[in-house]
């Protein structure tokens, strides 16, 4: 009975979550753990796409001596228009001698380039160095017209969309379009850019080196169709690029500045190659690609031979905006006693900045940035320094974390668990899952992981309760998770309202079903012991079956509709959630209280029946069973905190079923086989004596509990009752 009731209850909670209009699009993929949502202590979240929207906005272009922000983009635009109009006037003038005229320039000593030419180079590099493909929606309705349509719509701006694996790249290409240099076409071998003047420039793609999480950079070699120049462009993370570009004094500092503003940075560089250099590279590259052993290493080595002394062009900053209502949600979760850990693959500064702007770390809090450690001694010193600080958030990188866990696992986890917030940056997917397992192992508390991409799947599956967000990165995470939501802010309602209710209801339902079984067992025990332990069943066949099903099933199951406070209250006072993590709704103490209630009520019902019915002893079954059903119905009413109309219907329905069954189940109301033929005396049931005696027994079994409950509410009210009054 307990198993069946709880499983049906869990299915009902899942249905309620999916039907909640305040969190549309939520899917419950696991029907067995809705209660886990009610007792979480650690929430481990990803950053990109989970706390942020994964929609990038181009914010900053830095050229070393001059920096352009959103308000000065029009300057870039005018520079680009000027430089391209000059190029075209030159080209039209000396189209014949365009190639020779470049020779003296390259041999001349390097003069400091004008800002205009540097902007020109930087924008061109950003427009060429990427993996983006422009896509045109075909406007032709009929399939036969497609050939004409392709000509008509060729490069029209209205219906062009860009497609790429990363939203950062699309943003950069859209930005170059906004300043006048537009990517209009791309296939496997060439790319075409449209200048502000409407001319089309064609570049042949000679080689492309895609972005990998190890190299953290991508490169491309292109040949300009008009001049035949070969250029190697490259862009990547500052960590990877700082060693590749020529010496400069501003890159590191500016990267730090941008990261502190919460921008994602990319460094762009280029290198001009002569025909001979490129041919030499190509032959070595093809040779490396054909090698059988260590192919990847050899290919990487050849590419690295090009990645030297590159000319640093610019630094770009792209902003990833926070999702709606992330701040109030994190605030609410913190007030609910949930400790939030952010595990991200981003840079330390960017992660710290997002942690502050999302209020994951409150403004007043100190932040302890864990210095990079590589040895046991360093880890020891750093842990000691951290131990001296109180109530401060911890920011640590994946490498340092690895070292600490290797030598001082227990100490580190103990310290980190005391922090109000922890940010782990540069984390790999396996590290994320490892952190979840560590928390479960060391604290024994419930953990929840929330993420949006394939890289969060391992963490989601390792946690007690996984939540996936359907975002830009596909549905991998939401399909692997136990619960799937559409926005981060929905997690507040999912935990505070549904998680809390599911837990409280399951606790009440489970204990009530135990009480229902124990009370009838107690009555049988008392009955047998009075009759010299004769093995005579008190209730025959259908009464036993009907007791747990038709007579008490509906009222007991209606406990799944019970709620102590309204959803609005639960969201307004997240502190109510904190009480649940102590596990007081369902503990040995509450279980034993229910056992005592069952024994007390079972004893009273049976003894009462035996005491008051000396004369009509044959009718003891009818009397005790009637009192038992009434007691159960009253106990349900006593347990309920907020009435729902279905509960009232269930109570009266069960009572009606019982009264109706008295008429046709008469042979069951005798005792044992002896009086099997004894008819249920309808005349006796309708007498006043029967009614007052049954009422008396029921009152004695239930009234003390009502009085005790009233006194308890009076002298030590639970926290939620202070809000409902």
UniProtKB/TrEMBL annotation:
Gene3D superfamilies: Calcium-transporting ATPase, cytoplasmic domain N, Calcium-transporting ATPase, transmembrane domain, HAD superfamily/HAD-like
Transmembrane domains' residue ranges: 541-561, 591-611, 617-638, 645-664, 684-708
Region (Disordered): 85-114
InterPro entries linked to this entry: ATPase_P-typ_cyto_dom_N, ATPase_P-typ_P_site, ATPase_P-typ_TM_dom_sf, HAD-like_sf, HAD_sf, P-type_ATPase_IV, P_typ_ATPase, P_typ_ATPase_c
Designated name of the protein: Phospholipid-transporting ATPase
Organism from which the protein derives: Acanthisitta chloris (rifleman)
Positions of the P-type ATPase C-terminal domain: 479-717
Gene Ontology MF: a single term: magnesium ion binding
PANTHER family, alphabetized: PHOSPHOLIPID-TRANSPORTING ATPASE IIB-RELATED, PROBABLE PHOSPHOLIPID-TRANSPORTING ATPASE
């Amino acid at each position: 009975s307990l198993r069946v009731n709880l499983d049906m209850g869990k299915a009902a909670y899942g249905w309620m979550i999916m039907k909640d209009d305040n969190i549309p699009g939520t899917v419950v993929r696991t029907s067995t753990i809705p209660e886990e949502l009610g007792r979480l202590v650690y929430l481990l979240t990803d950053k990109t796409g989970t706390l942020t929207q994964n929609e990038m906005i181009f914010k900053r272009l830095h050229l070393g001596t001059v920096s352009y922000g959103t308000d000065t983009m029009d300057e870039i635009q005018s520079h680009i228009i000027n430089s391209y109009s000059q190029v075209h006037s030159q080209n039209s003038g000396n189209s014949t001698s365009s190639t020779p005229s470049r020779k003296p320039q390259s041999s001349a000593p390097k003069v400091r380039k004008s800002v205009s030419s540097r902007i020109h180079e930087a924008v061109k590099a950003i427009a060429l160095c990427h993996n983006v493909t422009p896509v045109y929606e075909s406007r032709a309705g009929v399939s036969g017209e497609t050939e004409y349509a392709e000509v008509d719509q060729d490069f029209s701006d209205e219906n062009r969309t860009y497609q790429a694996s990363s939203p950062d790249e699309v943003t950069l290409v859209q930005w170059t379009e906004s300043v006048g240099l537009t990517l209009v076409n791309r296939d496997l071998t060439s790319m075409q850019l449209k200048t502000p003047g409407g001319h089309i420039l064609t570049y042949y793609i000679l080689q492309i080196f895609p972005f990998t999480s190890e190299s953290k950079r991508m490169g491309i070699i292109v040949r300009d169709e008009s001049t035949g120049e070969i250029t190697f462009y490259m862009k990547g993370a500052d960590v990877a690029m700082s060693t590749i570009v020529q010496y400069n004094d501003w890159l590191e500092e500016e990267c730090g500045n941008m990261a502190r503003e919460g921008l994602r940075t990319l460094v762009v560089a280029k290198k001009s190659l002569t025909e001979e250099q490129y041919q030499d590279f190509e032959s070595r590259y093809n040779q490396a690609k054909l090698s059988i052993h260590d192919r990847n290493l050899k290919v990487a080595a050849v590419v690295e031979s090009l990645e030297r002394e590159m000319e640093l062009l610019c630094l770009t900053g792209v902003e990833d905006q926070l999702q709606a209502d992330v701040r109030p949600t994190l605030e609410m979760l913190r007030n609910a006693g949930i400790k939030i850990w952010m595990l991200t693959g981003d840079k330390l500064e960017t992660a710290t900045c997002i942690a502050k702007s999302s209020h994951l770390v409150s403004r007043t809090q100190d932040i302890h940035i864990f210095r990079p450690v590589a040895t046991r001694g360093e880890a020891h010193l750093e842990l000691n320094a951290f131990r001296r600080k109180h109530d401060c958030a911890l920011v640590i990188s994946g490498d340092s974390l690895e070292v600490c866990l290797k030598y001082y696992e227990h100490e580190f986890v103990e310290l980190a668990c005391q922090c109000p917030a922890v940010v782990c940056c540069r984390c790999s997917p396996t590290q994320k899952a490892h952190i979840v397992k560590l928390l479960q192992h060391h604290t024994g508390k419930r953990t929840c992981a929330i993420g949006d991409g394939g890289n969060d799947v391992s963490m989601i599956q390792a946690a007690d309760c996984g939540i996936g967000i359907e975002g830009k990165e596909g549905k991998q995470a939401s399909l692997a998770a136990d619960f799937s939501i559409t926005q981060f802010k929905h997690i507040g309602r999912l935990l505070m309202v549904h998680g809390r209710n599911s837990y409280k209801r399951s606790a009440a339902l489970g204990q009530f079903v135990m009480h229902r079984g124990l009370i009838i067992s107690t009555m049988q025990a008392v009955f047998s012991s009075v009759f010299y332990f004769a093995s005579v069943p008190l209730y025959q066949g259908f009464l036993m079956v009907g007791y747990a099903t038709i007579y008490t099933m509906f009222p007991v199951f209606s406990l799944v509709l019970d709620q102590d406070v309204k959803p609005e209250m639960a969201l307004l006072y997240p502190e109510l959630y904190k009480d649940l993590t102590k596990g007081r709704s369902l503990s040995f103490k509450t279980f034993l209280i229910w056992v005592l209630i069952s024994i007390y009520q079972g004893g009273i019902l049976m003894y009462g029946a035996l005491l008051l019915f000396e004369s009509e002893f044959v009718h003891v079954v009818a009397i005790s069973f009637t009192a038992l059903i009434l007691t159960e119905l009253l106990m349900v009413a006593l347990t309920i905190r907020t009435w729902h109309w279905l509960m009232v219907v269930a109570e009266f329905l069960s009572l009606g079923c019982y009264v109706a069954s008295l008429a046709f189940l008469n042979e069951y109301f005798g005792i044992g086989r002896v009086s099997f033929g004894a008819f249920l005396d309808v005349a006796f049931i309708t007498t006043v004596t029967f009614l007052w005696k049954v009422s008396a027994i029921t009152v004695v079994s239930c009234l003390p509990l009502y009085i005790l409950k009233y006194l308890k509410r009076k002298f030590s009210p639970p926290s939620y009752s202070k809000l409902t009054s």
